[in-house]
Amino acid sequence: MSQSTLQAVDYLAPNAKELFVASLKETGFGVLKNHPVEQASVQSIYTNWQTWFNQADAEKEASLYNKGSQDGFFPARISETAKGFTQKDIKEYFHYYPWGQCPAELRAEVHDYYTKTSAFAAELLSWIEELSPADVATHYSEPLSSMIQDSEQILLRILHYPPLDGDEEAGAIRAAAHEDINLITILPAANEPGLQVQAKDGSWLDVPSDFGNLIINIGDMLQEASAGYFPSTSHRVINPQGADMSKSRISLPLFLHPRPDVVLSDKHTAKSYLTERLTELGVI
Ligand SMILES: O=C(O)CCC(=O)C(=O)O
Ligand SMILES: [Fe+2]
């Protein structure tokens, strides 16, 4: 992966679509600047949820996640173990769905973000569809943007990586290397660095995370639906060092999940694929 492939693409440039989709094809990641997702809204969500995560565990656990439906708070003691790893990630998070649990005072703001960013994701999916070669597009069972239309599975995850105190389990990191399960993920740059993506040669590259950038990555479901044309690349969040260990990190991925009935490939619907992956993660 050459350095240039992960440079931010100006959403307002005339060739934005081509540059962005070329980056996704090459690296599984694309970075946008001058995009319509409002930074003030992202900042406000970070601030308000930092306050929420600062509460005592017992208060947060009043919104403990529901095992079947997966909405609500996932404490650090339950947090995911990435596929192929034995240590849990050093993180806690909240899963927001419009039909699910949410602290009342925070609902309107995340819902507004969820709705607007899902609509923007549909535009990006139509870019991806338009620039898919004909032999790849023939695998799509319906337009990519319609796969998420009326989907109740689109997931907004508010993630909190707490400060590190040095007592962490040896080898545990904030988010171990993994691939996302869904079609695409939309991730505003977090308030602290640490996100890295794996290049084709196996090396790890920092994702340019200037505050205000929007990071988009391909997930396994789009890799499956495009018969491997768009790669779902491994990424991770590494631990801070030195003085930065005392800082929390907040991030806000929106995982674009199709409706469960969407046919991804000869082998899988979105539902069968998701069940297989969540079982591997040990969260259902
Ligand atoms: O926190 C981040 O920057 C990335 C999070 C992530 O990759 C995930 O939750 O799937
Ligand atoms: Fe991820």
UniProtKB/TrEMBL annotation:
It holds the Pfam family 2OG-FeII_Oxy. Residues 150-258 form the Fe2OG dioxygenase domain. The keyword Cell membrane does not apply. Pathway: Alkene biosynthesis; ethylene biosynthesis via 2-oxoglutarate. It catalyses: 2-oxoglutarate + O2 + 2 H(+) = ethene + 3 CO2 + H2O; L-arginine + 2-oxoglutarate + O2 = guanidine + L-glutamate 5-semialdehyde + succinate + CO2. It is an enzyme of class 1 (oxidoreductase). Belongs to the iron/ascorbate-dependent oxidoreductase family. PANTHER family: 2-OXOGLUTARATE (2OG) AND FE(II)-DEPENDENT OXYGENASE SUPERFAMILY PROTEIN-RELATED (PTHR47990). This is 2-oxoglutarate-dependent ethylene/succinate-forming enzyme. It comes from Opacimonas viscosa.
